[in-house]
Predict the 3D structure of the following.
Amino acid sequence: MGAIRLDLIRRYLRPHRKVVLIGVAALVVVNLLSVSIPLLVRRVIDDLQDGFALQDVLAQAALIVALATVMGAVRLYSRMLVFGVGRQVEAELKQQIFDHLLKQEPGWVQTTGSGEVISRATSDVENVRRLLGFAVLSLTNTVLAYALTLPAMLSIDGWLTLAAVGLYPLMLMVVRLFGGRMMRQQRRQQEALASLSDLIQEDLSGISAIKIYGQESTEQTAFAGRNRIYRDAALNLARTRSTLFPLLEGISSISLLLLLALGSGQLESGRLSIGDLVALILFVERLVFPTALLGFTLNTFQTGQVSLERVEELLRRRPLIVSSASPTPPAKPGRGAVEARGLTVRYPNAPRPALVDVSFELHPGELVAVVGPVGCGKTTLARALGRMVELDPGQLWLDGVDITALDLAELRGQVGLVPQEGYLFTASLADNLRYGEPDAPFERVEAAARQARLEGDIKGFPDGYQTLVGERGITLSGGQRQRTALGRALLVRTPLLVLDDALASVDNTTAAEILRTIRSEQANAQSNDQGLGRTVLMISHQLSAAAACDRVLVLEEGRLVQQGHHSELVAERGTYRRLWDREQATEQLRAAG
Ligand SMILES: Nc1ncnc2c1ncn2[C@@H]1O[C@H](COP(=O)(O)OP(=O)(O)OP(=O)(O)O)[C@@H](O)[C@H]1O
């Protein structure tokens, strides 16, 4: 058995120490009462040898019943207190883990696997609850039972006591022998369960891909493999448990038999009264349960320990992307001016950087496109602007402030990032649109929907803006989903808007209308003297969309290889011209065929 992390257990229990202490005090009372009852029974039985007095017997019996009732009530109270602490710690820990998960960068959750994270946040936390509730209660109870019962037994007969409990160390040896194995098996079972949950989650998210490629049977085989591993792990653990506990029961029964056999001899020789023997039997019986329970308790301790460490490991994980300790306030009002100087981004464990030495400027109110072959780093650039990937300081500035020096919440209030796959929460369409500003009035929700060309679609939905969307709501088309994500970003008036291929599923006419709206909004802001209008960086696979922008940045293999207006770039030899020629050829083929 690994070293018990008492420091961790103490730390978790510290905020509840008053309740735990009252619970333990109640257990002391329970055990004192529990020791006094066999002693009372002994007196009654021995008094009976001297003659039967109904009044006395009834009085003693009433006392025993009263004591047993009080004992039961106090035991119930102590259980409620200590189990309550376990539940309380469980609730606090779940909240702490959830808060902690929200602080992590998205890349970590993706690489760790959500099944693994969910398993730690649920089943591991439950094991911790059992450790702090059941295990602490029963271990304290066992210690108290021994501490109070053994002296009482020894005062009756030392040798008989030794004979009765002499086999109990053997019981502990058996527990120790099986303990390490059970701990390893428990860990394997938890890992297998996490891997099974990962697969279910992944397959549910990728169900369309599975169907399109007809890979149901491959996935079934993969599931069967992981399911088998989980089943075997669970069976191994069950096998160890089911060998251990009958062994413990057997040993305690032998103890009782030994006491009866040796005790009756002592009775005959007159060295022991009947009351003494009955009391000893009652005492040994009292110890059977806490000792047998010790097996369960140690088991719970072991699994709880494993889980406690897994939970601690999760809570120790420091997010890579954090606000600066003394953040610089953003420029107010924000103008959306961006400067990148030698921007280099490398994902953790990636063999080479996704962006290398990229330098450019975005002027306030500009509409700039980013194009380039697949995997050239376009999305990474979008993520860098929203600081969704870790950056070294001194590479990227927003309105003259290094973005790593900005408070994260402030930064995200300045940069609207619209990903290609807009996520919809299970909520009304209106609430999805106002997700970034939950208190935004309905007029702004309508305006955002109008700008994102979503209004017409909403009219066709059963409950209009109140239609439930997301996982449990109606299914939106890819284009509707994208336009909702765009509307959500447009509602929050960030000075910089980054569209990461956010119009890819929107038809060309609608995409052009949306761009025109953004353009006229920029122009209005400039002519109304409301500043220069928001700056827009638009990542696109379609060069025809880039042609309508003020400027185009061309990336290739993580480097900025060209920049300029579309008309300049098509006139140059280079990546842009190559991509443009290819797009034109594809268009012509499509028109011809
Ligand atoms: N989370 C990640 N961890 C490690 N490497 C990554 C991660 N995301 C992207 N990459 C790698 O970084 C490089 C740039 O990827 P990025 O997604 O920025 O390209 P992109 O130009 O947006 O591609 P596409 O046109 O396909 O959308 C690629 O080599 C990619 O494999």
Q: What stands out?
A: The longest strand covers residues 338-345. DSSP finds 20 helices and twelve strands in the chain. The chain has a mean pLDDT of 88. The pocket of adenosine-5'-triphosphate is lined by residues 107, 347, 350, 354, 372, 374-380 (CB under 6 Å).
